[in-house]
Write a structure and sequence with these properties.
The complex is a heterotrimer of chains A (677), B (300) and C (228). Chain A is of the alpha/beta class. Chain A has 18 helices and 34 strands. In chain A, 29% of the residues lie in helices and 22% in strands. In chain A, the strands form 12 sheets. Chain A has a 5-stranded parallel β-sheet, with helices on one face. In chain A, helix 3 links the parallel strand 3 and strand 4. The chains are: A alpha/beta (677), B alpha/beta (300), C mainly alpha (228). Chains B and C meet through helix 2, helix 3, helix 4, helix 5 and helix 9 of B and helix 8, helix 9, helix 10, helix 11 and helix 13 of C. The complex binds flavin-adenine dinucleotide (FAD) and iron/sulfur cluster (SF4) (6 copies). The site of one iron/sulfur cluster has 12 residues of chain A, from helix 9 and helix 10.
């Protein structure tokens, strides 16, 4: 034990914690303390009731000063909990914090064993290992990197809009990237919002135009992120701006071109209206679209197909805003932080064929009804069936695609509430008898259950039972030419067949189809279901496991507008807190390459999960970017020439730790042999 | 102050002993009252079931009559001892107040009979009058034969405290307990105070009604009560007079004295049993007499 | 297709099947339900609040007689809301309700269930649905007439009439009780009357609900009741 890496003769302080009864009831802490005091290098060995408490920490600090300790080992709980605490304590007493090492004898020993004497043996073994290890510890310095104050927000729904405005109002620059031709997300499609029934457009469009005109926001619609590299504080992002074939800066949204289009009638399904109406090849998604700029659909525009259109649209535009030769634009930006607000996707109702969506024309999804009841929707707000008649009876089926082993197991959280809203709106628009078929009514939230009561008192029917099928075969005359809903009224205990003119499927919320791609691009995790995964479900709900990348709104899980907005605010606060701190300290447990040993085999480059390793073509050696390295150790193990070393996990440190453990095994073996003899 | 006494049909027949004891106690406590002139049936339960509007008219007529009879007094207080009457009078007032259209119809109809419904009268239960107008202290002062050692299980029945009355708690009423505590009795703590005794079904569907009464009597005996006091003529009749039927049906012994709370209060005030209609009970409350005279209680 | 379903009663007609196990159709077609029933009862019971019932079952749990009812109060509310008129009006529940108001006091939504039960009793009599030999409905009717004619109710004659009409045997069974009451001066066979009988009758008739009047006059229940 003579070689201590040139860092002076170790004077080790060892402290074992009782953790109340948590450790002391299963480990003989006094014995551990006595044992440690006999080990080489140990200057002082103590046990204490709560090492993490202030007096516990002061004990260490006092010993450092009075006894000149230069290594500290604490045997207590998990480093996840208190490594930071003790490192700070050591630092305050003037010791480099990386001379500290922690042994977990709670989670790894006292909580998992039932025999006190073997638990104590194990604690002693781990103690010896740690003490031998710290002989070789080195002082390390934390690196600090500056944080670029610019922010990228991906997805311009209500969550993205809220976060963008909050950050921009704080004086920071935001890039808001939206895939669709307009921002607004799902909320822009709604007529009213629960539970207050305030008009969605009235509360949303002012925010949309605020985004558009905000000097601190660069809004790129019809755009997508293509590539992300870098690390917290310093991300480099490549964005593709798809061509609209209209120059955004020139177009004022007068729509003359649309009127002038050679197609007199709109002919192609209008995506924004859920294909319930038609649009021309040149169109604007909806009247309040932001930006107020038209775009071409090259799939349907004659000129893109045959180059033989008269191009009456171009003639009509006196601002010369149309440019059929436009090509994609590629942008590269540098940002310090990212918020993902890519939202959700409604469940595809055709995957539950028993409800007849796609088969019976009068089976609608909830989103389609949102458009139908909307004054700016395909029917100017009239709720009519496909044959143009007002329905006399409408059945709303809850939990379509949710709470179902065959579809999604989760409850989509917002559909009970929006079904109530739609029941109200349909009744208001048509006077029809409206039935809600539900499994459970889920209306927790401020003013939500009151809303449920209000809708009930309006005379909407509530039938508790999951619908088995929607069908067109008639058992009795009144079912002829109707859609019949088969359900058990579980509250009365009879099976009912309810004939209706219109069926609304309350489809659930699911992750976007490309959530997996986005997740990989931004190097974050997804839950099994495909929702973006938060760092902690309660205590870090908008953070991810990748520093500097945050999530908010429907992309994290089913959520209504108030919750999405609240999360967006939280994510903005997290971002601003990083920006305000100005820089980020990085843990020094990073890997580095000893250049002279590196053979340039490149084995390490693809295996680094954080893309921290690159290849220097000049020197023909691999290089590790310390700011990106998370200290996972993968490359260290993989390097065939052993040229990678990692701070805090150097060979000597690990080997002497192992040696400490094995020594103990030797003793045990001897004892056993003696017993047998 | 003078009260209008509205007996209702039952205090003139099966509940005669309620009337006798109530009026005797009124006299003993110097409470002045006049019986309502030419009162009619309150309408109550059965009437509601046939024609609600008529039920309300019946009640409104009584209130209008009272307002007429005491037109010179500052305040009209109608004492309605029968729970059904009490409840229906309150309900009528509340209903007409909430439904101005019906109020107009009924007012007009009464006007034709020369009556003016002013909706001013206060509907009072005797318990309310004793506790809130006279007060426990005053009553305690007048007790001459304290109910020492008597365990009283007070029973209000369903319609005395719910759904419209406000003088006591709807789930756990305590006015009767306070009264008998003031009279020196021991109070039995039980949860049957407002449980329906089934009276409105005893005459019609006994199979359902008898178990309801049985359970009340059974719990009272289990808790070693010496007497069950009631505040409603239907309850008293039901719980007292069907004891034989109940015992036969359930093969038990539920014999226990079930008397009006005014009868027990009267005894404590030193009034003659006969004046309190005690003689009209099916069985004489010998046990009570003995304890009141200083004998030892016999717990059942 | 005839008015009713092809499947309507066909199973029940098959005698062979009936011998093995009674097979009845339980499925409900919406045409068999009365869509206006809910609003009618809500109006009659003074409260649209019944629409707000959350089917929690507190009423049934509070009700002292629910365990004898064919449908619990909670179920009755849902059946009323969904238009199960026949089932509701012919149910025993309506006549078992003792009007104790326990349900109304406990209902978390402030629904006046007792008043709904009253409304259903009235509806049952008017529509001639009530169980013909049910003592509770007969009693209600007799009581109604007695008060209409005399202004007061005379318990003795009232009960005698009821037993005669429903179950004369009960009259004998209760004779001893009646005698006991009679010797104690607690019951009389005399009919009680008020002085101003005429004007009371006029008063009562003046609030006749015109729409109900016809039904009432033609209601066999009322005719029979007044005949005895
Ligand atoms: C039928 C229905 C009715 C509803 N009614 C209500 C209601 O009345 N009240 C209420 O509170 N909630 C309601 N909700 C819930 C509400 O829709 C959500 O809470 C809300 O839309 C979530 O907002 P968001 O911004 O997180 O997601 P979204 O609204 O989905 O917005 C996400 C945005 O990100 C964009 N985007 C996605 N992927 C990318 C990408 N890779 N790159 C760039 N951009 C991308 C999308 O184009 C979209 O604009 C309803 C939901 C449904 C289905
Ligand atoms: S492209 Fe020209 S004509 Fe068309 S909306 Fe824009 S400004 Fe108007
Ligand atoms: S190029 Fe022709 S088809 Fe295309 S939008 Fe213009 S006018 Fe219409
Ligand atoms: S919110 Fe309601 S409708 Fe939606 S999945 Fe949950 S229970 Fe079903
Ligand atoms: S230690 Fe892990 S994160 Fe760091 S360079 Fe090696 S593989 Fe990448
Ligand atoms: S207690 Fe009220 S809310 Fe609950 S089931 Fe009964 S009526 Fe409905
Ligand atoms: S009022 Fe009727 S339904 Fe309600 S608890 Fe009493 S008996 Fe039951």
């Amino acid at each position: 034990m003579s070689n201590t890496n040139g860092n002076g003769l170790p004077k080790i302080g060892f402290y074992v914690c009782h953790c109340g009864h948590n450790i002391a009831s299963m480990v003989d802490v006094e014995e551990v303390q006595k044992f440690a005091s006999t080990l080489p290098g140990v200057k002082i060995s103590r046990d204490y009731k709560y090492m993490c408490s202030d007096p516990g920490q002061e004990l260490i600090q006092k010993d450092i000063k009075e006894l000149g300790l230069n290594r500290i080992v604490v045997a207590s709980c998990s480093p996840l909990l208190h490594e930071h605490t003790f490192r700070v304590a050591a630092e305050k007493a003037g010791l480099n914090p990386y001379y500290f090492h922690m042994v977990n004898i709670r989670e790894n020993v006292s909580w998992v064993h039932t025999d006190k004497s073997s638990a104590t043996q194990k604690a002693k073994a781990l103690t010896r290992a740690a003490i031998q290890r710290v002989f070789f510890h080195k002082p390390l310095e934390k690196k600090s990197v500056p944080v670029n104050p610019d922010v990228l927000i991906v997805g311009g729904g209500i969550a993205g809009i809220t976060a963008a405005l909050t950050i921009a109002n704080a004086g920071k620059h935001v890039y808001l990237v939206e895939r669709e031709p307009t921002i607004g997300g799902h909320m822009a499609m709604f007529d009213k919002t629960f539970p207050t029934l305030d008009c969605a457009a009235c509360i949303l469009t002012p925010k949309m135009s605020a985004v558009k005109s905000h000097p601190n926001i660069t809004m790129w619609t019809y755009s997508e992120v293509e590539k992300v590299s870098g690390f917290v504080g310093n991300y480099k992002v490549n964005i593709k701006r798809k061509p609209r074939y209209v120059i955004e800066e020139l177009c004022v949204g007068c729509m003359e071109c649309i009127d002038a289009c050679i197609y007199k009638e709109a002919k192609y399904p209008d995506e924004f209206n859920q294909k319930l109406s038609k649009r021309k090849p040149i169109y604007i998604p909806f009247p309040q679209a932001t930006p107020q700029v038209v775009l071409f659909d090259p799939e349907t525009c004659i000129d893109f197909k045959s180059h033989r259109c008269k191009k009456t649209c171009i003639e009509a535009c006196d601002r010369e805003a149309i440019d059929l030769k436009q090509v994609p634009e590629y942008k590269e930006i540098n940002v310090g932080t990212v918020i993902l607000t890519t939202g959700f996707k409604p469940y595809d109702a055709e995957l539950s064929p028993q409800y007849g969506y796609g088969k019976y024309p009068n089976v609608y999804t909830s989103l389609e009804i949102e458009r139908l009841v909307n004054a700016s929707g395909p029917t100017s707000g009239e709720v009519v069936t496909k044959d143009g008649n007002k329905p006399k009876s409408v059945g709303i089926i809850h939990c379509v695609g949710s709470r179902d082993q065959k579809a999604h197991k989760w409850c989509s959280k917002v559909c009970c509430m929006y079904s109530l809203k739609l029941a109200h709106l349909i009744k208001e628009h048509t006077g029809a008898e409206v039935y809600n078929f539900y499994i459970d009514m889920r209306t927790p939230g401020k003013g939500y259950d009151e809303f449920y009561e209000k809708i009930m008192t309006e005379g909407v029917h509530f039938v508790r039972g999951r619908v088995s099928e929607v069908t067109d075969w008639a058992l009795v005359p009144e079912e002829e030419n109707k859609l019949t809903i088969r359900v058990e009224d579980t509250l009365i205990g009879v099976v009912r067949r309810v004939p209706v003119d219109m069926v609304v499927l309350a489809v659930g919320l699911e992750p976007r189809a490309d959530a997996g791609d986005i997740r990989r691009m931004f190097n974050i995790s997804c839950s099994n279901e495909g929702w973006f995964l938060e760092r902690h479900p309660k205590l870090a709900p908008v953070s991810t496991f990748t520093d500097g990348i945050f999530i908010a709104g429907g992309c994290q899980g089913p959520k209504d507008i108030p919750d999405s907005v609240a999360q967006a605010g939280a994510a903005a606060a997290e971002v601003l807190s990083l920006i305000c701190a100005g820089s980020i300290e990085l843990e020094p447990n990073t890997a580095s390459i000893i250049e002279k040993f590196c053979s340039g085999c490149k084995s390490c480059i693809p295996i680094c999960p954080y893309s921290a390793i690159s290849f220097n073509d000049g020197t023909q050696k691999a290089v590790i970017n310390e700011a990106l390295c998370k200290g996972c150790g993968t490359c260290v193990a993989a390097c065939p020439s052993g040229s990678i070393i990692q701070n805090l996990f150097e060979d000597e440190q690990i080997f002497s730790e192992i040696d400490g453990l094995l020594k103990f095994a030797d003793i045990e073996l001897e004892e056993m042999e003696a017993e047998h003899a | 102050m003078k009260y209008i006494y509205y007996p209702g049909c039952s205090l003139k027949s099966t509940g005669k002993l309620y009337e006798e004891s109530l009026l005797a106690v009124f006299d003993a406590l110097d409470i002045k009252y006049e019986e309502l002139n030419d009162w009619n049936c309150c309408g109550a339960t059965a009437y509601m079931a046939v024609d609600e509007k008529k039920a309300f008219v019946l009640a409104a007529r009584n209130i209008a009559l009272a307002e007429e009879q005491l037109k010179d007094e500052a305040e009209v207080n109608i004492v309605a001892p029968c729970s059904a009457c009490y409840m229906i009078l309150l309900k009528t007032q509340k209903f007409l107040e909430e439904n101005p259209e019906d109020m107009a119809v009924i007012k007009a109809a009464l006007k034709e009979s020369g009556l003016d419904y002013k909706a001013k009268a206060k509907i009072r239960h005797p318990l309310d009058v004793f506790l809130n107008d006279i007060g426990e202290q005053e009553i305690a002062k007048r007790i001459t034969k304290p109910l020492k050692g008597i365990r009283v299980a007070s029973y209000y029945g369903c319609q005395t405290v719910r759904p419209y009355s406000t003088f006591d708690d709807q789930r756990n009423p305590v006015t009767m307990d306070r009264l008998f505590k003031a009279a020196g009795a021991e109070i039995v703590d039980w949860s049957m105070k407002t449980r329906c005794c089934g009276a409105s079904l005893t005459g019609t569907i006994q199979e359902v009604a008898l178990p309801l009464s049985y359970i009340i009597l059974h719990e009272a005996k289990k808790r070693r009560a010496d007497v069950v006091t009631t505040a409603c003529s239907l309850c008293q009749f039901n719980l007292e007079c069907y004891q034989t039927n109940i015992d036969k049906k359930f093969k038990t012994d539920t014999k226990i004295d079930v008397i009006y709370f005014t009868q027990l209060l009267g005894l404590a005030l030193g009034l003659e049993p006969k004046k309190l209609g005690i003689n009209r009970l099916f069985a004489q409350p010998e046990n009570l007499f003995r304890i009141i005279e200083g004998g030892k209680p016999v717990y059942v | 297709m005839d008015k009713k379903s092809v499947f309507a009663e066909s199973f029940a007609l098959d005698n062979a099947a009936k011998d093995i196990v009674e097979i009845r159709r339980r499925i409900k077609y919406e045409s068999e339900l009365d869509k206006g029933f809910r609003d009618k009862i809500a109006k009659s019971a003074h409260g649209e609040k019944l629409y707000g019932c959350i089917q929690c079952g507190t009423c049934s749990a509070a009700c002292p007689v629910s365990h004898y009812m064919d449908y619990t109060p909670r179920k009755i509310i849902q059946m009323v809301r969904e238009g199960f008129k026949e089932e509701v009006l012919t149910s025993s529940t309506v006549w078992l309700c003792a009007s104790c108001y326990a349900c109304s006091v406990e209902c978390p939504k402030g629904i006046k269930i007792t008043d709904v039960m009253y409304a259903l009793k009235r509806e049952s009599i008017l529509g001639n649905y009530y169980p013909k030999k049910s003592p509770a409905s007969i009693l209600a009717n007799n009581f109604f007439n007695q008060v209409l004619n005399n202004g007061r109710n005379s318990e003795g004659p009232l009960l005698i009439k009821m037993y005669l009409k429903t179950n004369p045997f009960m009259l004998f069974k209760n004779m001893a009780l009646g005698f006991k009451l009679w010797v104690r001066g607690r019951i009389s066979l005399k009919t009680e009357k008020i002085k101003d009988k005429k004007s009371l009758k006029r008063l009562l008739q003046s609030v006749e609900d015109k729409s109900n009047y016809k039904a009432k006059v033609h209601s066999p229940a009322l005719k029979e009741a007044s005949a005895v």
